[in-house]
Amino acid sequence: FKACDEDNKGYLSREDFKVAVIMLFGYKPSKIEADFAMSSVNPNASGILLEEFLSIVRKKKEVRLHWNEIRHIFTAFDRHYRGYLTLEDFKTAFKQVAPKLSERTVLDVFFVSFSREVDQDSDGLVSFRDFEYAMNYGQNEA
């Protein structure tokens, strides 16, 4: 915060916020993201105060951690590094983590839960985007 508040204003302007996100997360925030951050600012303030900034950063870190966990799980399933999962990938993964699970249950998970409900491009494969959607779908329902 202090590194981006060069004039010691006590707040971050829109441009200061963009620089801070680049420094912390390695990417330039989109206009939508910057607009959202600025909309959280108290109308009487000139920019994002330290407390508001810390709240935004905390939420972004939680989202990134969750995404990293999903990516790690997907990679563990995608043992051939193809970028998608097949039924065989599911069978192999489930044999390792739940060896007593029946093949019928694995088939149900793959064909019912993934292929029908989250295979957004209907290609019969589970891409990372499909997998991420499935993992977040359960989170959003809770």
TrEMBL record:
<dbReference type="InterPro" id="IPR018247">
    <property type="entry name" value="EF_Hand_1_Ca_BS"/>
</dbReference>
<feature type="domain" description="EF-hand">
    <location>
        <begin position="65"/>
        <end position="100"/>
    </location>
</feature>
<dbReference type="InterPro" id="IPR002048">
    <property type="entry name" value="EF_hand_dom"/>
</dbReference>
<dbReference type="Pfam" id="PF13499">
    <property type="entry name" value="EF-hand_7"/>
</dbReference>
<dbReference type="InterPro" id="IPR011992">
    <property type="entry name" value="EF-hand-dom_pair"/>
</dbReference>
<keyword id="KW-0479">Metal-binding</keyword>
<feature type="domain" description="EF-hand">
    <location>
        <begin position="116"/>
        <end position="141"/>
    </location>
</feature>
<keyword id="KW-0106">Calcium</keyword>
<dbReference type="InterPro" id="IPR050145">
    <property type="entry name" value="Centrin_CML-like"/>
</dbReference>
<dbReference type="Pfam" id="PF13833">
    <property type="entry name" value="EF-hand_8"/>
</dbReference>
<dbReference type="GO" id="GO:0005509">
    <property type="term" value="F:calcium ion binding"/>
</dbReference>
<protein>
    <recommendedName>
        <fullName>EF-hand domain-containing protein</fullName>
    </recommendedName>
</protein>
<feature type="domain" description="EF-hand">
    <location>
        <begin position="1"/>
        <end position="27"/>
    </location>
</feature>
<keyword id="KW-0677">Repeat</keyword>
